[in-house]
Amino acid sequence: MLLLQLTILSSLPAKGQRVPRTVASPKDTVTITQDTTVALAAPKGDIETTIKYSARDSIQFEVDRKVVHLYGDAKINYGTMSLAAAYISIDYDKNMLTATTLPDSTGKEVGVPVFADGGETYAAKKIAYNYKTKKGRISEVVTQQGEGYIHSEVVKKNEENEIFGLHNKYTTCNLEHPHFYINATRIKAIPNDKVMSGPFNLVIADIPTPLGFLFGLFPTPKNNKRASGVIIPQFGESRLRGFSLTGGGYYLALNDYIGTRITGDIYSLGGYKVNIDNTYVKRYSYQGTFGFSYDYFKNDEADIAEQSRSTDQRTQLPPSTRSFWINWSHSPVQKPGRGRFNASVNAGSSLYQRLSYTSQSNYLAPNFNSSVSYQKNFQNTPFSFDIRVNQSQQNGAAMMRQQQQDSTKSAKNVGVMNFVLPDLNFAMTQIGIYETLTGRVPTGQWYENFTFGYSVNARNEVSNRFQAQQLSGVRPEFLAGGTTQDTVIALNPANASEIWENGQRSAVHNFQIGLGNYKVMRYFNLTPTVSYGETWLDKKFSYRFDEESKKVVVDTANFGRVYEYSAGASLNTTVYGTAYVKGKRVEAIRHIIRPSIAYRYRPDFGNEDQFGFYQTVQVDTSDTGAPVYRTLPRFARGVPSPGLQSGLSFSLDNNLEMKVKSKNDTTGTGKNFEKVSLIDNLRLSTFYNFAADSFNLSPVTLSMNTRVLKTFNINFNSTFDPYQTVVDAEGRSRRINKYMLSGSGFRPARLTQANFGLTASLNPEARRTPAATPNNLPSLQPELDPLVPNYVDFNIPWTMNLDYTVYYTAATTATDRSNLIQTVGFDGSVNVTEKWKVGYFATYNISDNNLANARLDIYRDLHCWEMSISWIPFGFQRGYNFTINARSSLLRDLRLTRNRTGLNYR
To answer: Could you point out which of 15, 170, 647, 879 has its C-alpha 20 to 30 Å from the C-alpha of 164?
Structure first.
């Protein structure tokens, strides 16, 4: 049989060759019934390579017609093309492959033809393909192009692998009968590039809608490759700006490394906004984003009110204004021996965030900070340096809220900018002095433990705010030339010299001196310490009282030096105590105590004759004519606090844990144990200053933190005052230099402040197995709207996070009451069904009986669509949002949104 088969195959001619008459008559056929795979060597002619074909049932040859019929799981491989179907015919005369289904014993069509070529796969009821021209015709086919599926009545494929469809349905739903589709008579698809259509309309649940356009263009880049395209705007409404079209523009994919998104907003009440966002990435080197926004806010009503109302009333209505904002984030990949350049910039006009805030955190933030830095560690050396430029500015929205609450504040405070140009750090890590000087390996001698390190921080701080009170303890009206309120000047070249003079330049030197660690009496660790620091400043003040003007005159020198040093030693040990219980599960309880005492000496840097950091000067004259003196610092910053310190600090740390039998002990011997922490740390600390003339003992602090049942985290902090208090004639409480223990009863101290926090994270799935971050998360956009949900995970049945906080402060006067604040917060989610998910968040102030913040989110999985409902009942972002949209990122602009937010709430 095999010999006969090879003889027949070798006799099949290529196109243009005659068939020998002696082979068979036109009606003669040869049938092979066993499952056979045949390879036909490529002869000279139209066949370019070997055709391999096989069939499970039979292979039938019509020699005269030069046709091969394959029945039952027929398969053909020809170069990069493959074809599988219930029935396939090969017509060598016409260079055609034809594949169809066949009915089974019940009459059901089986063996749907599947055609693959060049990475593209098609399934259809009938496929005809010319392997010479590489053109094909496919009937009732479904093809996948990127994220979309094309259902076509008839498809033709040309030699460039382009697809032309007739009577088409384009959708991102992967069902055989899609929930929605774009109905188009003609479609052209260029693989790994785009899908184009003529006039189309949207069909939802088999119901045609009038939504459509004259043409359609859907990008389908290969391997999620970025592609340029139009960004459809969204319709919205704002209380201050009216109706709007927002977010419309164009995305420009310059190359594989840089992409630019240019969008704009336009408003019915006037005004517009332009946004430019860039992303860039270089693999194994760096990545970053850069954005620029320009906003023209027009408010004719506020402009009119600005001319007629008082200053306080004008600040409540933002007038027409132009503002901008810059965002820049750059982060490199750390490489050994290479410098590291970082950038995090958030800067712009002061009122931009008030008018165009994109999140609750941006609106409530008191200020914005920017930093650009370069840092480098020198390999095989202890040296490193870091140079950076910092900028900070107050949030215009926050400042407006403060000014509305305090009528004494002026709108001139808006626009405060603080710069550090530059901030230079140079450091040398601690090195062994003996090993560095001698070059020898330490042998264990005590003097070989000495180490030395050094660091310097040089900075130039500049601000356009001129503070009213430059000197501590002196009212502005007592200073010659002093101002009574802060002033803010504009940032422009004309004011550059004045702003520079208002700046402060300093260099802070720190010397790290290590004297080693030593064992004392086998169980104690002794650590002596010495510290020294020095600060260079560009301004040093000298004071004199002018009898004529009755004010303090300040003379300024161009350089000053401040230094501070101290010495001490600490002694600590660890004590272990174990109590054996031998209970049913508890084997033992262990208590670990870590006592520590430390002595520190620091001279009185307020001594004017010895150090000269302070100066006592007359600042005023009393009603009786007697001079009033006050001690003032001679430097604007970095001055050590006055007072001699010679004191002993004490701390006691405790840890309590149990040794219990493991629940996972399968041996039955009871020898498998595990540790359970009862108290992670309980700390008691205080300080006693021998040199103080009164109140030698500092307040006692008591803190504790632990974790219970691997779920609840408990934190506790408190402060106790060991001194008594008395009430003066005005009803105010005043401390006296008398211990509480000397009073009646046993009361060592009184509680002045306490803070208790309890947090818990409840997640049944996470407790069963370690939580893992999903590796298929979609690419999330930055937070643009607090009412629009982000990624939703439907696999977790429910989660809940609890936060309970109690804050207590004791009364300071006889008439006041102690202040007790209790808040409880909770957030989480519940999967009501497989397709429904509810998320919630709320914070409740128990003391004020007030719900401080709340939010409710509802999600619905609609297969190829999704629905979300969010509701914020109160607050400046109160409102709701209802959105239903297609899940595919390709058709993410196909959505319906209804909302009322803080911007358009009426």
So the answer is: 15
- Provide block-wise average pLDDT over 10 residues at a time, the chain (906 residues): 34 35 39 50 54 85 88 86 89 88 86 78 82 81 78 82 85 85 88 82 87 78 69 78 87 88 91 93 91 87 57 54 90 84 88 68 70 90 92 66 44 68 92 87 84 93 73 57 67 81 90 91 92 93 85 87 95 93 86 96 93 89 84 88 93 93 65 84 95 92 91 93 84 84 82 94 62 37 44 68 92 75 91 88 87 87 88 79 82 76 56
Q: Which of 196, 194, 118, 186 is nearest to 156 (CA)?
A: 186
What's the longest Cα–Cα distance across the chain?
A: 144
Q: Where are the domains of the chain?
A: 2-12+25-133, 821-906
Spell out the long-range contacts of 825-833 with Cβ–Cβ below 8 A and sequence spacing 24 or more: 826/800, 826/801, 826/802, 827/800, 827/801, 828/762, 828/798, 828/799, 828/800, 828/801, 829/796, 829/798, 829/799, 829/857, 830/797, 830/798, 831/794, 831/796, 831/797, 831/798
Rounded Cα gap, residues 683 and 654, in angstroms: 6
Q: Helix, strand or coil for residue 437?
A: helix
CB-side exposure of 184: number of CA atoms within 13 Å? 26
Tell me the C-alpha distance between 73 and 71, whole Å: 7
The C-alpha atoms of residue 754 and residue 699 are separated, in whole angstroms, by 13
The phi, psi pair for 65, rounded to 5°, reads -85, -10
**Nearest-5° angle of CA 308, CA 313, CA 316?**
125
What's the Cα-to-Cα distance from 601 to each of 566, 684, 822, rounded to whole Å? 6, 22, 41
CATH architecture of the domain covering 2-12+25-133: Sandwich (2.60)
Task: For the chain, give the number of residues.
Answer: 906
Measuring CA to CA, how many Å separate 735 from each of 45, 322, 542, 635?
Answer: 110, 55, 35, 32
C-alpha span between 249 and 231 (Å, rounded):
5
Whether 478 contacts 441, CB under 8 Å: no
Quote the CA–CA distance of 141 and 156 in Å, as a whole number. 10
Residue 74 CB partners (closer than 8 Å, separation 6+): 53, 54, 55, 56, 84, 85, 86, 87, 88, 99, 111
Separation of CA 447 from chain center: 49
Q: Which two tokens stand for residue 680?
A: 């992670």
The kind and range of the H/E element at 500 are: helix 496-502
HEC string of 180-211?
EEEEEEEEEEECCCEEEECCEEEEECCEEEEE
